[in-house]
Amino acid sequence: RGGGSGGGGAAKHYRSTTTTTTRAPHLQHYRRQHHSSCGGNGGARAAHEETFLCAPAAASASITTNLRRKHAFWRLAASSSASPPADSSGNGGDGSSSSSPSSSSQPEFLGIAMSTLKKVVPLALMMFCILFNYTILRDTKDVLVVTAPGSGAEIIPFLKTYVNLPAAIGFAAIYARLSNLMDRDRLFYTILVPFVMFFGAFAFIMYPARDTLHPTEFCVDLLEKLGPKFMGPLAILRNWTYCAFYVAAELWGSVVVSVLFWGFANQIMEVKEAKQFYPLFGLIANVALIFSGQAVRLFSAIRADLPPGVDGWGISLKGLMGMVVIGGFCVAGIYWAVNKYVLPNVPQPTTTKKKKEKLSMGIGESVTFLAKSSYVRDLATLVVAYGISINLVEVTWKSKIKAQYPDPNDYSMFMGNFSTATGTVTFMLMIISRFIFGKFGWGVAAVITPTVILLTGAVFFSLILLPGAWDPVLAALGFTPLFMAVLVGAAQNIFSKGSKYSLFDPCKEMAYIPLDEETKVKGKAAIDVICNPLGKSGGSLVQQFMIFTFGSLAASTPYLGGVLLVIVLMWLKAAASLNVQFEDLQKQRLAEAAEESTA
Hints:
- The protein starts with 6 loop residues before the first helix and ends with a helix.
- Strands 1-2 form a two-stranded antiparallel sheet.
- It contains 22 helices and 2 strands.
- The longest helix has 42 residues, at 557-598.
- 78% of the residues lie in helices and 1% in strands.
- By secondary structure, the protein is an all-alpha fold.
């Protein structure tokens, strides 16, 4: 038939022929696979191969022969951008009349379907704004709690265990309840807006009134009576507004990044689109780490130039939180625009099962329901293992940073440079990750992050446990052992976080896509909101136990290294198990989609 250029015309032409012949149901699935192809000749051939292999066994011999003939033709036509062939009756390739010209494929830009780009571009912008905010919040929360009066890095294990974890569980309970009461759009705004309002209120209201809000004298007197072993819990009470900010910043990463953004992306993206573009989301978004890290560094330099008596930290907080508020409203605006202008005009995912009726389940029932699945348990293991592994090194490293940079200005500037370095390394890893996903698949990509953490962690612990082995290096570089520990710890965190953002997060989010709607919504709430803090709190509990048992964090370092080894081995085992289940479930969803198309 005559070739056209409009993807919409092709869709309209196709819809008008879905009932014209007895073979229409099979060809409807065949055509849909072709039109939903996300670009590239290899992707087009793969889509037709999957369609042909999933064709119903009960199809007539003539239909099977016809499909084979079309399949062979398209393998040649994909490379020459030919129009769909017309059969002997003069009809188009789908059995329809050729009276109205239309395009055989959707419009493309740089080999990518425009319908895919309309989803990918705003999602990348959302990720940029979210991670820009998260980097500022992450650096600011560390400076607040570590340099607060009567506090230090030792407060972090207590804070994560006794404040952050209960707050995460409470939020998960609220989210599970709200997910049964609200539609997707209302739920998104209901969760996002309170975060933005709190961060703005902290900088402009709570921090200026900190002397009135903090029970400083009461905590100092209580510490004298109870002794220094209670410094951690009392520091939380003494600086409770800082700790509230710390918890809110941690929840921003778990809730806004994992639940809101990735949940939205998983609902509108196909598996084949996710494999191609999820790594690129991080590639684009991690530019935010570079910019936000430099923003933190810039405000740190401004504080250093202010005259004595001026609260430079308060001025910086207002500027930084002002950017966070603007970024939060940008996220809300992009989400609104995508739902209003993009989704009504693009194809929806076809491999997702029909949405089931929602069940009214509390958080306890939701966790019990999810725990019955080995697939979900393996996902939870991955998240918990990462949290424990990174936390075992991070607290010791932050105590070294405070010793090296006791002034908040210097501490904040170092963290800003650290975030910029993390963004730069992650950017490069993102480029490599696309090749890894395309060449080796999900299974290989999933085991790279634990391997990186194991190797870099071994270097960091060797610096502490075997300092003599590093003497030639220290002498050649002219570094002190303290500064070397700070640099090695920073490198460990940079490469661990870089591999997490470029490989671990995309792998984790891809694993949700084949799941049904109920498991996606409640599974993400249970895994990302509970298991992520649980992993960090688990690492904190291990550190607290080691400190109480061996007397100090330094004395327990060898045992922490042993715990890290065990956790990473469990992580690798769960990743291997999940890889098998992911491939099987993806094949099952494709088969179900083929059956539904013939019903």
